[in-house]
Amino acid sequence: MNQTENSLVMGADLSLLKRNLDQGAAYRIDGSPIEPVSFLKQAGFEWARLRLFHSPSGHGAQCTDLLYTLALAKQLVESGYKFLLDIHYSDTWADPGKQHVPKAWKEMDFLTLEQEVYRYTLQVVAAFVSVGAEPDMVQIGNEITPGMLWNHGRVAQAHNVNTPHWQREESSNDKQAWNRFGKLLKAGIKGAHVATGKPTPIMMHIDRGGDIPTNQWFFDNLMEQGVEFDAIGESYYPFWHGMPEDLAETLEFLGKRYNKDLYLAEVAYPHKHHEMYENALSGDQEGWDRLTGKYPLSPDGQKRFMGDVIEIVKASSHGKGIFYWAPEWIPIPGTEDEADASPCWARALFDEQGNALPALDVFKQTRELESA
């Protein structure tokens, strides 16, 4: 199944795949072992999104340093995947609740940090080019709704991922703060372009897939700073970001206002219950009932949700594609990851024994219909 020029981009964040396989994870379909790289490709995923941490601890999921990510990117590109590089500019997860400066950069003043963002981005993108895994798109920062590299590039207060979108902190229109943030983004963009020797597409990624006002606040301010980019990436998890109809309205707004390619840079839905998801809507029983009534936390509910989300993106005037987040994240017996009991397992596309789930069929069917 080959992607045509106008077909939906379907990708997955496969950042933990190498670690899982190295530690003995096994994936299956109908009880038979599968090789996940080729299996996912045949299932319709033709892009891989990989996150890059600066100097991670190496514990659990914090393994995605440059050497690790180079090896995984090389394997995936050689297997025919296109590649979105997600640079976190942090030693750990960068998200709306934290955008910590790497330890190695902690004592830098703003000017030095700006130069380092350029140098580092150039260096890491060039490293991927050198191993034959040139990124097809580069994401400058991860879920940068409140800015990046705090406090130098901060434009809003932190919020906890479990805080519903309608309860989050008020954001800032401080022009000096936005100017600093814009300079850091421009430094990263320049580094990526110099490394590839061409205007490699750039994605700006925030976490507000169903929130029009915050999208307008963020991207109006960003455009005012003259930050040049090609694609808007949204995280969309309905427990935090609204119902699918909220997503549809947000995508239509973004397409009309900014005329950019639109991606769900992260999307996922649980195939089983986990208290984290219920806690996210603990103050909105009606919302919980409405969401889980239509999309039960079950394999069939996960499949139905992804089918509807794919149709929403396809119907959007500027909808370009989706990246399913961490379909491969399953527990590995005898590892520290198993002891963490990660809620991410509940929204993988394989169950905790590594068996492929029905939602995978949605991606394959989407590609088959496009090829018919």
TrEMBL record:
What chemistry does it catalyse, as a reaction equation? The enzyme specifically hydrolyzes (1->4)-beta-D-galactosidic linkages in type I arabinogalactans
Does the entry feature the keyword Hydrolase, yes or no?
yes
* Enzyme class at the top of the EC tree: hydrolase
InterPro entries given in the database record? GH (IPR017853), Glyco_hydro_53 (IPR011683)
Magnesium listed as a keyword: no
Query: What SUPFAM superfamilies does the record tag this protein with?
Result: (Trans)glycosidases
Q: Which GO terms describe its molecular function?
A: arabinogalactan endo-1,4-beta-galactosidase activity; glucosidase activity
Give the EC number: 3.2.1.89
Q: Name one process (GO BP) from the record.
A: pectin catabolic process
Keywords of this entry: Glycosidase, Hydrolase
A Pfam family that this protein carries is: Glyco_hydro_53
Name used for this protein in its record: Arabinogalactan endo-beta-1,4-galactanase
Residues spanning the signal sequence: none
Similarity section: Belongs to the glycosyl hydrolase 53 family.
